[in-house]
Amino acid sequence: GGVNLEGILEKVELKAIRQALARAGGNKTRAAQMLGMSFRAFRYRLAKLGEGGE
Fold first, then answer.
1. pLDDT of residue 53
2. What does DSSP assign to residue 51?
3. In this structure, is residue 54 part of a structural domain?
4. CATH number of the structural domain spanning residue 43
5. What are phi and psi of 17, to 5 degrees?
6. Which residue range(s) make up the domain with 42?
7. To 10 degrees, what angle do helices 5-23 and 39-48 make?
8. Angle 46-43-15 (CA atoms, 0-180°, nearest 5)?
């Protein structure tokens, strides 16, 4: 089979988001800042990756 780039990117993104959340003690605003993204973009990505963007 071929390489599923989308799936690979999602796994990497999810890992980075989870690590940032852990470092931020669950604070999504701080985790977003650590990743250099806006809180809205962070929430969108969480929801898109099925991690609950609320």
1. 53
2. S
3. no
4. 1.10.10
5. -65, -45
6. 5-48
7. 130
8. 35
Cα–Cα distance for residue pair 1/19, rounded to 1 Å: 30
Task: Indicate the number of domains in the chain.
Answer: 1
Predicted structure pTM score: 0.80
Retrieve residue 39's tokens: 């809180």
Residue 53 domain-assigned? no
Is 36 a member of any domain? Answer: yes
State the average pLDDT over residues 42-46. Answer: 93
Burial class (CB in 10 A: 0-12, 13-18, 19+), 17: buried
Alpha-carbon span 8 to 18, nearest angstrom: 15
